[in-house]
Amino acid sequence: MDFSLSEEQEMLKKMARDFLADKCPKTLVREMQKDEVGYPPELWQEMAGLGWMGLVLPERYGGSGMAFLDLSVLLEEMGRACLPGPFFPTVVLGALPITDIGTEELKESYLPQIAGGEAIFTLALIEYDAGLDASSISVRALADRDDYIISGTKLFVPDAHIADYLLCVARTGESIKAEDNITVFLVDAKSPGISHTVLKTIAGDKLCEVVFDQVRVPEENILGELNQGWSEVQRIMERAAVAKCCEMIGNMQQVLEMTVDYAKERMQFTRPIGSFQAIQHHCANMATDVDASRFSTYQAAWMLSEGFPCTKEVAIARAITTDASRRMLALAHQIHGAIGLTEDHDLPIYSKRAKAAELAFGDTHFYRELVAQQVGL
Amino acid sequence: MDFKFDEEQEKFRQEVVTFLEEEKKQGAFQPISDSWVHGYSHEFSKKIAQKGWIGLTWPKEYGGQGRSWMDRLILTEELLRYGAPTGWHWSADRQMGPSIIKYGTEDQKRDFLPRIIRGEVSMAIGMSEPEAGSDMASLQTRAIEDGDDFVLNGQKVWTSGSQHANYIYLVARTDPSFSPHDPKNYKGISEFIVPTDVAGITISPLLDMAGGGHFTEVFFDNARIPKTCLVGEKNRGFYQIMEQLDYERAGIERLMSNYVVFEWIIDYAKNTYRNGVPLYKEPIIRDKIARLVMEFETGRLLCYRVAWVLDQGQVPNYEAAIAKLYGTEFEKRLASEAMEILGFYGQLMPDSKYVPLSGSVILSYLFSPGYSIQGGTSEILRNVIAQRGLGLPR
C-alpha cells in the first residue's frame, strides 16, 4: 500500500497546477462560460505542446504511454482550475476507447491527431430518456451495403459543436436482450445529416443535442465488434465515472482551501469565524469528505490503471464522491455567507461545476444500485 | 499510489485467517460484536501471544516482532472480522506498550513489554473522571510524592475492563499548584502504571445500557505506589497522552467493532422473506446496504492510510481523527440500519424466543452510542481536524 503520489506524478501535478494558474484564471473560465465556442484554441495548442492529450496514449501513436493513474492526477488539477474545453471528451471518451478497441487503421488515423491537438472527439451516448441502461439506446444504424446509416437524436453530448469526430452508440438490430445488438461507430462530425444545438447548462459546459439524419458511416468505422458494443460502453462509462470523480476531487480540494482561508480571515464578533466550533466542525466534515472521496477515487483509478476488474470500486468511488461533493459545497456556501452567492465570487463557479459533474455519467442512486448488485443482492 | 497488499502481507493475512478458522471450529470462541471490548479470554489472548501477535510492531530486543503497522492492521482486521475475543490484551497491545517503548525507563521496558507480549498482563486505561471527560486536563485525581512513593487519591470512571486487568494506566495530577480549572491545567499531570491489587484501590462495575459490564468506576483512597510506577517525565504527562490518543484512535476497531453484524445482516437480507418477497429485492433495503458497503470500504481506506502514515515513521494526527470520526459514524449507522432491517424482530433481547442473529444486532445497537464517545468524541475529533489538520484558530 502506498498513499502517496510518485515523484513523477508530483512533478506532473505541480507543472499542471502552475500552468493552469497562469493560463486558466477565473476571468478566462467566466469568459468561456459565455463564449459560443467555449474554449481558447491557443490554450488547447499549448496543452498539446505539453503532451497532455497524448499523456496516456501509446508512444507509437505520438503519446507518452503513461498510465490512467497519471491522467487522474492531471484531471484533478483541471478540476481544481475549472478548465473549460474539450479535454475530457477528447481523451477520456474518445482517445481511450479507440486505444482499447480500435482497429490498427483507426488508431493510426486518429490517435496521432488527438495527441497533436488536431482533433476533438466526443461521445454521443445519452438519449431523450436520459437513462444509462442499454434499453435507453434507440438511435438506429441500418446496414446499407458497406455502410451504416445512423438516424436518431442524442442528448447531452459534450462539445459536439466543436468536435471533429463523434463516437456514436447505436442499435444495429432488434433483440430480446437490450444489451445485444449495440454498436459503437466513429463518425466524422462533418458528415452530411449531422446537426447540433448547444444546450444552456448550469456551469456553461457546452452540452449538445445532436441529430443524426440518415448519416452514412463506412463499416470500417465500427469501433470494436459489431453488435457487441454494450460491454465497451460500460467500460467507457466506468472510466468516465472515475475520471469525472478526479475532476471533482480537484474541485473539492480547492473549495475546502478557499473556505478554510475565508474562515480564517472573515471577522465577526471581533473574531475570525473559523475560531467558532460551529464553523470548525463544518470545515472538519468537509475535510473528511474530501479525504474519503480522494482515496475511494484513487483506489478505483489505480485499479483501472492496473487493469483489474473494479465495477464495485468504481461505483463506490462515484457514489461516495457525488454525495460528498453535494454536502461539502452546501457547507462551503453556508460558511461563505452572502458573498459566496455573488456572480463575481469564485465559489459559484465551483458549485455549479460540482453539480454538473454530479449529474454526468449517472448519479449516486445509479451507483448505489450497482454496489448492491456487486455484493450479491 | 498502490492499493494492494504485497505477497508477504497476503500470506500473513492467510495465516491469521487459518488460525481463526481453526479456533472457531474448535469452539475456542463464538463471534461477537465489540469483541475487543466485551470479549475477555485470557486463554485466547495467550494463544494469540504464542503466535507472536501481541506487540507485533515492537522492537525485537523486547520480544516484539518489529513488523509494520500495516501488518498489525491486517491482524486486527481479521480478529475483528471474526469477532474473536481480544479484550484481555487489546489496550496494552495498542497503546500502553508503545507508550512504554517511547517514554518508559529501561527497567520498565524489560519488566512490562515481555509480559504484555506473552499475554500475561491486561491493562485498563485510567483517563476519564466524573468531572473530566473530553476536557481531560481538568482531571482531579492526585498523585502526591511521599518519600519513595506516590500516594493516589481520587476517582476514575468508564475504566473499561479494569475488573479483569492487572494494571491501570493512570493519568493523575502530580503538581497540585495547577488546579483543575486553571487555564494551564494541562501542566502538572503525569502518567503511571498502577497495579490493580494495591491497597486503597476499589473497583466497582457499572452496567451499561446494553447490559454489559465492561465499564467500571475506580476509587483511589490513599493508594500507595512506588515511584518506579511513573512513566515518562513527571508533570509532562499531558504531552505524552496527546500522542497516545492518536494511537488509540488510529486502529480499525473504530470501523469494525460491530463488523459481525454487517456480514450477518447482509446474509439476513438475502435469506429472509417479508410480505412475500425476499428482503434483498426491496429497493430501500438494497439502498441501505449499498450505502453501508460503500461507507465501510471507504472507511477501510482511511484506516489503511493511518497505518501507512505510521509506517512512514510519522504520528498520525488529523488522519487518525478523520478515520475514527468516519469509522464510528459508520458503526452507529450500521447498528441502526440493521435494527430497521430486522423490523419487529429487532427489539428482541438475546435470551428471547425468536431472537435473530443471537441478539448481536440489538447488543451492538445498544452499545453503539458509545462508538462516537469513547476514545475522543466526534466533536473533539472535529476540533482536532479543524485546528491541527486545517490550521483554524482556537
Strand content of chain B: 5-15%
Strands ordered across the widest β-sheet of chain A: 1-4-5-8
- The overall pLDDT average of chain A reads 97
The radius of gyration of chain A is 21 Å
In round numbers, the mean pLDDT of chain B is 95
Number of domains of chain B: 3
Overall 3D shape of chain B: globular
- CATH top level of the largest domain in chain A? Mainly Alpha
CATH superfamily of the largest domain in chain B: Butyryl-CoA Dehydrogenase, subunit A, domain 3
Given helix and strand content, the structural type of chain B is alpha+beta
Q: Assembly state here?
A: heterodimer
For the biggest β-sheet of chain B, the strand order reads 1-4-5-8
Model description:
The complex is a heterodimer of chains A (377) and B (394). With 377 residues, chain A is of the alpha+beta class. Chain A folds into 3 domains: 113 residues, Acyl-CoA dehydrogenase/oxidase, N-terminal domain (Butyryl-Coa Dehydrogenase, subunit A, domain 1, Orthogonal Bundle), CATH 1.10.540; 106 residues, Beta Barrel (Butyryl-CoA Dehydrogenase, subunit A, domain 2), CATH 2.40.110; 144 residues, Butyryl-CoA Dehydrogenase, subunit A, domain 3. Helices cover 51% and strands 16% of the residues of chain A. Chain A contains 11 helices and 10 strands. In chain A, the strands form 3 sheets. Chain A has a 4-stranded mixed sheet with strand order 1-4-5-8. In chain A, helix 7 runs antiparallel to helix 10 and helix 8 runs antiparallel to helix 9. Chain B has a 4-stranded mixed sheet, with helices on one face. The model of chain B has no long low-confidence stretch (mean pLDDT 95). Chain B is α+β, with helices and mostly antiparallel strands and 394 residues long. Chains A and B meet through helix 7, strand 10, helix 8, helix 9 and helix 11 of A and helix 9, helix 10, helix 11 and helix 13 of B.
